[in-house]
Design a protein that fits this description.
This is dUTP diphosphatase. Helix 1 runs parallel beside helix 7 and helix 3 packs across helix 7. A two-stranded antiparallel ribbon has the order 1-2. The protein has 2 domains: 136 residues, Type II deoxyuridine triphosphatase (all-alpha NTP pyrophosphatase fold, Orthogonal Bundle), CATH 1.10.4010; 72 residues, no CATH class. It is mainly alpha-helical.
Length: 208
């Protein structure tokens, strides 16, 4: 299995685990993942800038974070409980290797949103087109995805639902700690996700 294909498999496994943690029977709940995709697309457009009547500069970092969030929803749409992760990953890799693009990032984003609205599907080719036009590669996606997914797990395990979770430690928000942990690790390591989690545990205030 190629490195990129393996990364897609890992992300699919992590997505199913996260969805199951939120609701054990998530398959049968009929969650509207497609709606989450097009709503995120609209929010992302605000970060990118679309108003012709005022000067706007794309907030690239925020756009990349929004794309990572959309991938969570896209994976959730593709997981059906029957098809193997390897098969889904192969389909995704094939579609993402032939990016679909409009004349600019905004138009490509609209292709992604249109598929979600009209067909209730995740258009992986248009998603790859957005990645290409914002200067994002599969490693950036993997790093961002695994980090965010692991942080979500960490929050759940440390009292997020109960309201006892501490979001700011040692003067920094958990997102900032996450960035520092991820930057210090090798994304190619087989236990990358576990190392991210352990890195967060090591920083989190103990016994509080």
């Amino acid at each position: 299995m190629s490195a990129n294909l393996n990364k897609l498999v890992v992300m699919l496994e992590m997505q199913n685990a996260m969805n199951t943690k939120v609701h054990e029977q998530w398959f049968s709940q009929g969650f509207e993942w497609y709606r989450a995709i097009w709503v995120e697309c609209a929010e992302m457009l605000d970060h990118y800038g679309w108003k012709w009547w005022k000067k706007q500069t794309p907030d690239t970092e925020q756009v990349i974070l929004e794309l990572v969030d959309i991938f969570h929803f896209g994976l959730s749409l593709r997981i059906d409980g029957k098809t193997s992760y390897e098969q889904i990953a192969t389909q995704l890799q094939t579609q993402m290797s032939a990016p679909q693009q409009g004349d600019d990032f905004k138009q490509t984003l609209e292709l992604l949103a249109a598929s979600a609205v009209a067909n209730k599907t995740f258009n992986a080719a248009a998603f790859a087109g957005c990645m290409a036009q914002i200067g994002m590669d599969i490693d950036d996606l993997y790093r961002g995805y695994v980090g965010k997914n692991t942080l979500n797990f960490f929050r759940q395990d440390h009292g997020y639902k109960e309201g006892s979770y501490i979001k700011v430690w040692h003067g920094k928000e958990d997102n900032e700690h996450l960035v520092e942990v991820v930057k210090s690790l090798d994304t190619e390591h087989v236990d990358f996700a576990k190392q991210v989690y352990q890195g967060l545990v090591a920083r989190y205030p103990q016994g509080e």
